[in-house]
Amino acid sequence: MRQYSPDLTPPWKKPKPVPQVPADPGLVVEEPATGFCGAVIRCEAGTVTLEDRFGKHRVFPLEPSGFLLEGRTVTLVRPSPGSSSASSSVRPSRTASGSVAVPGARARVARAGRIYVEGRHDAELVEKVWGDDLRVEGVVVEYLEGIDDLPAIVTEFAPGPDARLGILVDHLVPGTKEFRIAQSVTSEHALVVGHPYIDVWEAVKPASLGIPGWPRIPHGQDWKTGVCRELGWPENTGAVWRAILARVGSYRDLEPELLGRVEELIDFVTAPE
Fold this sequence. Notes:
Layout: E1 20-22, E2 28-31, E3 36-44, E4 47-51, E5 57-61, E6 67-69, E7 72-77, E8 114-117, H1 120-137, E9 140-143, H2 150-157, E10 165-169, H3 177-183, E11 190-194, H4 206-209, H5 223-231, H6 237-246, H7 256-270
Parallel strand pairs: 1-7, 8-9, 8-10, 10-11
Antiparallel strand pairs: 2-3, 3-4, 4-5, 6-7
């Protein structure tokens, strides 16, 4: 008669079973070997296709314990045939910035790195369009109220490999004061980028506001006040900005010169050490 030895391994030392999770479209997982994080858009025999926040696709094999879901190791399996979640290709939902939404994602603990923008309006616009992405990445946005003291601010922040600093500057055009100040920041762990608009208001597409275009304001006049006068808007720039911001629903309402720069800063601040 065959004898069996009892398993005397303490319960706390036994490996925990890895759960199997259906690769439902829209499920956000990470492939740990590459660090690629994205939403499931397709699951076929033996493979799963993920799409990251920038629309890039990667195909991975459905291997045991091959993915991370909310930080836990899981085994992805094909959804049951005939289930509503087993469709061959479904695009995941998107955030206002156009990136893949992460359902139920919790805000990450804030990174040491930061993104600085010039003023309150810049910060509010970035929050409205990229807020979901920033919370997932743990990136805090602060505003400077101008950049005249930017070199001193960067020196005080002391950016490093684990605390990168990204700065978004209005009207960053060669020959301007802003351009000269930006060039004085030389830290390899700080990145200064900018858009060509005098104020972040101009980065909102005129069509989204129902106007033919942003008026040209003579040099020496307060730009925002001049815009309000030219367009027949109340000269309460705070109230006008709130109305402008309310018309911004997603990245589609913003000019590409701003979109690219903000995405560049997010990439820089969140890049691996």
